[in-house]
Amino acid sequence: MKIRFQKYLKRLLLFLLALAFIFTVNGTIERQYVKREIRDFVSRAEYIAPGVLFDYDDTKERFYIVRKKYDYEDVNYNTYDYINEYIGSTGDIIVTNRNPLSEIKILDSLIVHFWIGHAGLVLTDDGSQTLEIVGNDTLESNEVLELDNTFNINLRGEEVVGLRIKGITSENKERIQVIKDKYLGKKYNYLFIINLANRFYCIDLITRVLEDVGIRINYDFWVSTGNDMITSKNTYLFYYSYVDKKGIIHRYFLVDQEFSI
User: Fold this and answer.
1) Tens of pLDDT, residues 108-126
2) How confident is the model at residue 233 (pLDDT cuts 50, 70, 90)?
3) 195 pairs with which residues across the strands?
4) Which domains does the chain have, with CATH numbers?
5) For position 111, what pLDDT does the model report?
6) Backbone angles phi, psi at 42, to 5 degrees
7) Phi/psi class of residue 204: alpha, beta or left (left: φ > 0; alpha: ψ in -120 to 50)?
């Protein structure tokens, strides 16, 4: 009996090691595509010097516009509201590689590599509200909530990406408003590699809400990561920010071709 148990345990460990290896290889490949997506977006940027339109302290943050280039890039909705500092519009995804457990430094490289820090789904046209779930708060708070969109603040060095769904319609946006109600109050899923019917982690939550609307963004049919969302053929960047070594926040956002500085 003991020998049989040890045999099953060994097989289980080998299976888990194989899954970890596949996950790592897949994530490493996707990471290269993520870097390319960001690099291409940033390469189109034009710096906005402080002035009448953008009155800011360039020792703390700097702004760049990225003009629409592709037909699928939709700038009819908010990308970045400079006045109110809101990112995105209804149906947009915001993902960051911020380590939610900053005291555990060993997680930093893992989270940056796979973009599994945190994510939210924008619920309002002005970008002020998001649908989110966190797993590092109190048990009572570890549930799906509508929250103020704060992805633009409290930056400690991480990157933030705003993703828009290609061809998203007003009907899709209206459907999101209806669908999200059935997720509110659901608890956090700590078994990341196993999908549960009524428990979610942040990126999984977004993937499932969008699937309910008829939009698929994860094509590897396994654990949903930020890498999956950024490299998905159904999304594109409309916003990107990072914090440099001097602590200056650099913000890039998509605008119309006719936008004047």
Assistant:
1) 566 666 667 789 999 999 9
2) very high
3) none
4) 2-255 (3.90.1720.10)
5) 63
6) -65, -30
7) alpha
Radius of gyration of the chain (CA): 19
Between strands 93-96 and 118-122, the pairing is antiparallel
Distance separating alpha carbons of residues 241 and 246, to the nearest angstrom: 14
Q: What is the dihedral of CA 217, 222, 228, 233, to 10 degrees?
A: -40
Task: Kindly report the pTM of this predicted structure.
Answer: 0.87
**Residue appearing with tokens 């997720």:** 183
Q: Find the helix packing angle between 2-43 and 107-114, rounded to 10°.
A: 60
* CB-CB contact of 181 with 188 (8 Å): no
pLDDT over 70 at 39, yes or no? yes
The strand pair at 61-67 and 45-48 is best described as antiparallel
Residue 247 DSSP code: S
**What pLDDT, on a 0 to 100 scale, did the predictor assign at position 24?**
61
Query: Which residues have C-beta within 8 Å of that of residue 6, sequence separation ≥ 6?
Result: none
